């Protein structure tokens, strides 16, 4: 696993009593952002954080992130494809 070092200004790092808390915050933020960018599925992101699928859904809600990871255009295209499929089944 790659390790990186990030300098944290003292006025920010002093807000956290435990460096592990800050490390956890950075890792969680990284995984959330990468999920939103489409680089992880819900299950992959949950696994990276060591939490359940439901736990990740709760985390998304806590940070006000959407669990829908698609653009409006993608959603409309999928809806149209589904509607066409359903109409052919009639």
Keywords:
90 residues; mainly alpha; 0% strand
Architecture blueprint of SSEs:
Elements: H1 10-13, H2 19-36, H3 42-49, H4 53-62, H5 72-88
Helix pairs in contact: 2-3, 3-4
Question: Mind explaining what this structure looks like?
Answer:
It is a single chain. The chain is mainly α and 90 residues long. The chain has one domain (17-88). It is 63% helix and 0% strand. The protein has helices at 10-13, 19-36, 42-49, 53-62, 72-88. The mean pLDDT is 88.
Short structural description:
The chain is mostly helical and 90 residues long.
Would you list the SSEs in sequence order as H and E?
A: HHHHH
**Helix percentage:** 55-70%
Low-confidence stretches: none
Major sheet summary line = none
What is the general shape?
Answer: elongated
Number of strands: 0
| C-alpha-based Rg, rounded | 19 Å
Distance between the termini: 52 Å
Average pLDDT works out at 88
What is the number of helical segments per DSSP (H or I, 4+ residues)?
5
């Amino acid at each position: 696993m790659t390790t990186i070092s990030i300098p944290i200004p003292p006025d920010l790092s002093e807000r956290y009593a435990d460096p592990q808390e800050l490390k956890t915050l950075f890792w969680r933020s990284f995984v959330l952002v990468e999920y939103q960018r489409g680089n992880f599925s819900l299950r992959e992101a949950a696994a990276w954080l060591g939490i359940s699928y439901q736990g990740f859904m709760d985390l998304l809600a806590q940070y006000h992130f959407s669990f829908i990871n698609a653009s409006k255009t993608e959603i409309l295209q999928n809806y149209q494809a589904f509607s066409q499929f359903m109409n052919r089944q009639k």
